[in-house]
Amino acid sequence: TPYKSKNLSIDINFNIAHNENSIREISEFYPTEKGNITRNGDYKTFMQVNNPFGSFYGFRRLGVYTDLQATEAKSDAGKPIVTPAGQQVYMRFNYPATDYTFQPGDVMYDDINSDGNIDYQDVVYLGNSNPSFTGGFGASASIKGSLKITAFFNYRYKYDVVNGTKMTTTNMYWYDNQSTAVMRRWRKPGDVTDIPRSLFQSGYNWLGSDFYVEDASFLRFRTLTVRYTFPKKLVDRIKIKNLSGYLTAENLFTWTKYTGQDPEVSMRGADPFRVATDNSMTPPVKMLTLGLTGSF
Q1: What distance in Å separates the CA atoms of residue 295 and residue 9, rounded to the nearest whole number?
Q2: 227 in helix, strand or coil?
């Protein structure tokens, strides 16, 4: 209570929480990894002793191959990779199991070990779905004991979410509705864009990558309540003990850089390999509540 007088009292509150978890022991009969990085839309997760739950892995996305020359495989030194016969090698995916040769307009993934082949050796850490900090804060002001204004905010800081809606509305893989982002997709050699060509049920243009991972940190104006307590003279006149009226507004504003509908995404279920994925569940609605309370 930083300020208090006969006619005005101001209270503030603040809380912050940090959760740390660490795996101490894993049964020899329990799986330690999940996810197939060679399958579109999948991320890799691991369970490791002395490491926390919630971390996930995938590919780093660099853009889109603009033309055939851009798909040429290059070594660490930036020199073209060639066969023993001197022929140019082009970037491939998961050789020799899948052996897909990338084409102009396909997504360019980071070839971490510069071997001309995008596979499990190019998988990197992408994020963790456990927030670094969570909490809330607020304040209330009481004026002359009859009018009270209360506000509350809550927040999450530094936690990574897979924007599943962005994935399904830009992959151009099924019959699903697509976002307007696909209007800037690659169409012809020379096009420079972040959206690849359209391939119906084909290709590897939406593998689990950092393109769909976002920091969903947010600050939300959760509630604002204005309450007025009627004076004793008035309530005595109408022969009741007390009477007050209030107006509460909920979910007024949310400040975030997250591009999905609602940044407050939770890891659902009991699967220890789960990752916070946003598939555009209905976000919290703005709500106004008007009420009158009293006792006889």
Answers
A1: 25
A2: strand
Q: pLDDT, tens digit, for every residue of 48-100?
A: 888 888 889 999 999 999 999 999 999 988 899 999 999 999 999 999 999 99
Q: Cis peptide leading into 31, omega within 30 of 0?
A: no
Q: What are phi and psi of 184, to 5 degrees?
A: -100, 20
Q: Which two tokens stand for residue 161?
A: 């979410």
CA distance from start to end of the chain: 32
Q: State both tokens at 92.
A: 């491939």
3-state secondary structure of 121: helix
Q: What percent of the chain has pLDDT over 90?
A: 79
Q: What average pLDDT does this structure show over 213-233?
A: 94
CB atoms near residue 159 (< 10 Å): 23
Question: What secondary structure letter does DSSP report for 232?
Answer: H
Question: Can you tell me the distance from the alpha carbon of 74 to that of 61, in angstroms, rounded to the nearest whole number?
Answer: 17
Instruction: Summarize the confidence of residues 230-237 as an average pLDDT.
Output: 83
